[in-house]
Write a structure and sequence with these properties.
alpha+beta; two-stranded antiparallel sheet
């Protein structure tokens, strides 16, 4: 039975995280609200995740909390997981100390996933 090398799984994991980049950089909300059969524009909005987080923070009240959560779960955690995954893969076959760190990185990855 053929089992792919670990680098194949790592490559697939990294590619899925790289697919998050367009969602962070491109406009994901694009809507237009009109009235009077389309002759009067009431609202026209184009937002990315970053714009959305900034809008939440500027809203006042508990909007800052929502902005922090959006940034944390959409940007910080995926970036941290990608860094840990790349570091673990690169140190997997290194010195014994590097191997120990690679194992710790994998344990952290499992915990936050």
């Amino acid at each position: 039975r053929y089992v792919p090398k670990m680098s194949v799984w790592t490559g697939l994991s990294i590619s899925t995280y790289l697919l998050l980049a367009p969602g962070l950089l491109c406009k994901i909300w694009d809507y237009r609200i009109t009235g009077m059969s389309g002759t009067m524009e009431i609202k026209n909005k184009h937002e990315s995740i970053g714009d959305f987080a900034v809008g939440l923070a500027q809203e006042g009240g508990m909007g800052w909390f929502g902005a922090i959560m959006v940034v944390l779960y959409a940007m910080v955690i995926p970036a941290m997981k990608l860094v840990l995954l790349i570091a673990a893969e690169s140190w997997r076959n290194g010195s014994p100390k590097q191997v120990r760190w690679a194992r710790k990185f994998v344990i952290v990855l499992k915990a936050i996933s």
